[in-house]
Design a protein that fits this description.
The protein is built from 10 helices and 12 strands. The chain is an alpha+beta fold. The strands form 2 sheets. Strands 1-8-5-10-3-2 form a 6-stranded antiparallel β-sheet. It has a 6-stranded antiparallel β-sheet with strand order 7-6-9-4-11-12, with no helix packed on it. Helix 7 runs antiparallel to helix 8, helix 8 packs antiparallel against helix 9 and helix 9 packs antiparallel against helix 10. 33% of the residues are buried.
């Protein structure tokens, strides 16, 4: 399960000291090593002016604004295989459009992450979160699929504790804080084949949405290619369908090819049916069955 680690240190670490500590002393592939570094993350959080200084720098230097990866996130430092960020979590009551912000910040939405990260509450009251666990390897990855989500705990994540979330194993529902809250996160870069990220419907214990922003961007580009692409585009789509490590991206490429080459749709889906990922192969078999029936 996601690990909550009490950390009562009063030491203060700078962002430079923290990045150097992670770079030199933490094995990012080892959860125990990450957990052992929780006290250092808390020491970084003990610098109560850290995020304010960075915000001031962003305002003073317009170029530095490029460090903002979203309205929610400020990147504080980087090292090989990791980066450190500050995340801002507004209270729903502070927002002019509560529904839009609930979606933007994933409040009240059960979801997982395809990367491991460690987080500490830096400023504000913190938030409540419900923790679940599931087995990624037993999930095919399509919307509506049943998933064995196991509830583990509901906890209030306040100043003083560090939490470690495991990639594609821990899922959670994060509730909006009572007041603006800032967390500091150690983000570990994912290795190997890209994994899907999921949103879950807790009532039915099913997948309600698939894909992170990177996968969504790839699939959007492929859909555009299906509409306006040329002969070169077809070759590129064939390569993506055959070789891309992301199964959702391969499936999107097969869909695009079948739309661009309707006369060859059966051939396209027969190739897809040989894909090693059940998500792609099963979708292909369904499409072939429809083609045969039609």
């Amino acid at each position: 399960m996601a690990l909550t680690i009490p950390c009562n240190t009063r030491s203060i670490a700078s962002i430079e000291e923290y990045v150097d500590h992670v770079r030199s002393k933490v094995d990012l592939r080892d959860l125990d090593s990450l957990a052992d570094s929780a006290t250092m993350l808390r020491a970084l959080s003990n610098d109560r002016t850290l995020v304010v200084r960075e915000l001031n720098n962003l305002i003073v230097n317009a170029v530095a604004y490029l460090q903002l990866t979203s309205a929610q996130t400020i990147v504080l430092g980087r090292g090989e295989g990791f980066y450190v960020r500050a995340n801002l979590w507004p209270a729903i009551g502070d927002m002019s459009n509560a529904r839009a912000y609930q979606n933007q910040f994933a409040y009240n939405i059960a979801h997982d992450h395809n990367f491991t990260f460690m987080t500490v509450t830096h400023l504000g009251p913190g938030y409540e979160t419900e923790i679940y666990e599931y087995d990624y390897e037993r999930v095919e990855g399509y919307v509506g699929e049943s998933v064995d989500l196991r509830f583990l705990e509901k906890t209030r994540f306040t100043t003083g504790a560090v939490m470690l979330y495991r990639a594609s194993r821990d899922a959670h529902v994060q509730h909006a804080p009572e007041d603006l809250t800032v967390t500091l996160n150690l983000m570990v870069a994912a290795e190997g084949v890209p994994r899907d990220q999921y949103q879950f419907d807790l009532a039915s214990r099913t997948i309600s949405a698939v894909g992170d922003m990177h996968a969504a961007a790839r699939m959007s580009l492929i859909n555009l290619a299906a509409s306006v692409g040329d002969e070169q585009t077809l070759g590129l789509l064939h390569d993506v369908a055959a070789k891309h490590p992301c199964r959702q991206t391969r499936l999107s490429a097969f869909n695009a090819l079948s739309e661009k080459l309707p006369a060859e749709a059966s051939k396209v889906w027969r190739q897809a049916a040989r894909d090693p990922a059940p998500l792609v192969a099963n979708a292909a078999r369904k499409r072939l069955a429809k083609l045969d029936a039609g």
